[in-house]
Request: fold
Amino acid sequence: MAAPPTGAAGGASILTSNTRTGRIIRWVDYRLPFVAALQHELNEYPTPRNLNYWWNFGSLAGIMLVIMIATGVILAMHYTPNADLAFDSVERLMRDVNYGWLLRYIHMNGASMFFVLVYIHIFRGLYYGSYKYPRELLWMLGVVILLLMMATAFMGYVLPWGQMSYWGATVITNLFSAIPVVGSKIVTLLWGGFTVGNPTLNRFFSLHYLLPFVIVAVVGLHIIALHTHGSNNPLGIDHRGPQDSIPFHPYYTIKDMFGLSVFLIIFAIFVFYMPNSLGDAQNYIPANPLQTPPDIVPEWYFLPFYAILRSITFDFLGIPGKLIGVILMFSSILLLFVLPWLDTSRVRSARFRPIYKIVYWFLLIDVFVLGYVGHNPPSGSIVTIGQIATFYYFLHFLILIPLIGKIERPRPLPISIGAAVLGAGAGAAAAGPTERH
Amino acid sequence: MPRQYVLAALAACLLVLGTATVPARAQEETPTPPKQDWSFNGVFGTYDRAALQRGFQVYKEVCSACHPVKHLYFRNLEDIGYSEDQVKGIASQAQVTDGPNDQGEMFQRPGRPSDPIPGPFANDNAARAANNGALPPDLSLITKARDGNGDYVYAILNGFKDPPANFKMTEGTYYNEYFAGHQIKMPPPLSADQVKFADGTQATVPQMAHDVVTFLSWAAEPSLEQRHRMGFKVIVFLLILTLVLYAAKRKIWARIPH
Reply:
């Protein structure tokens, strides 16, 4: 029962085998250790044996990034970044380019799917304390990726140059005008003029093509940081020995592939049967600077932040409400950078943190409430609910998280991953009694 | 115990949100367009060819007096069941501006299948001038550009009514139940037996509205049938792949206790 898992057969032999392939690979690897690196990161890379399906979402997000870049590069071949031609070039693509509709619907819905995956990935990290020592930089790189994704998605949504593209761009770029002194200069710089127009579209297109490759680079750093200390796990305790881990390949490659296949089914349902359900009908109307749409609503994945932005309806200590809203919106994400130091508990997993577990779910509910508020016109009780939810969001991170770490009595941790998974007495290091769950 | 708190909190939130939406709904007087049973709904949905051709006839004889379909080309009409020769015939009935010729002049010639279907007005200003200041929107994306899609367009076409007794109408507008604000500048476009269908279908207003919405839905989303067919194959493939991968996953993980 306690036999340590063996690595994948075959993989290790290729670097030492005396076949022709073996010799070629050794020749290359002596000069550029590519296969050896793969070997190291996949075959030998020890992974906690107890990862659950919530750990699938990181690799899924990585694959989604590749899908977005692949479809996006082809879309760019057919797209014309000109305010007079952009809308029609997208329609041309949808109608006259072979499978153009498919590429565009994959890219459009892919953006939403990417955010679903990344939001689940983030909330996985929050639940199991993946941001804590020694993974603080890993977490912070993730927040950088999130910010880059948001910028990329926002600029991508402007490119079809529909009504919501144009007015969304107008509202969001105007946020920077709230910055004292230099605000209006920054907005002019973003626009490349005195209103959202052709120069805006051109620079957004350029940046929308650039930023995904920056994301790829940061994902690379994210993975290097991940592989330095290995994945966290549902128990949130460190690896203590070989009985705690299994090789990434084949155990997690096959699990990731199964998860990918399930995800692709959901993705395909959106692409083929409800491709416009997550978008706004207004964006099939060409941009019209003279006509404001009845409701300017961002894409769903920005709604909670939009709600925070709009929550401050009053000036405070002489600071305009608009500026406070902008500051709060940005700090709602920037806060995540310091989360590893706000959390005073040394126990990672919420499984062993009875109080944190409750506020975790409250935070999740709070974010959904914020999303609901962001979706609706700000009138009547919607405003009040938005203010309470915004207040609670910051209360969670700034007060509850530091406080709970101090007052909470965590449940006893299992002695090792191997012991917890394999049962008491199993594994060389698991000598003592173990926690049952 | 934590679970109970969470559920209680969730219920409380839903309750608050539920009551919060009531005033928002009450303000909104425009009714939601009723759902229609379109041939192109559902996983296997396709466009009803007879309805498409009748719809094209309604567009050509009624709507096209004011509304362009600028993303459509004559050649696209082969998709709705017309033969190549029929499309050539339809195209040649239109006059298209071409040029400049060797003398540097623009000239008129009969349309060809490769031409975009010409709109009724030279430009937006001409359209406004002819329509009491209102701009009749392009119809080639209309069903995708409105919440409610085809159901909305159908509801508008059938939604003209006498205004309620105390309702003040602005000059040059018409009362429409489903239009936001109820005052639409488009006069009721359809009247019974306005067109004569070749297949003998009775040209009632709901029938013409149904057919033209089918046509406009196709105009907005011509790839729908291909998309539905491909999606079915893709999903069946993925379901089988998922089962195979699940079996493989179980087999591989059986090597180790977990």
The mean pLDDT of chain B is 91. The CA atoms of residues 245 and 251 of chain B lie 10 Å apart. Chain B touches chain A through 50 residues (CB under 8 Å).
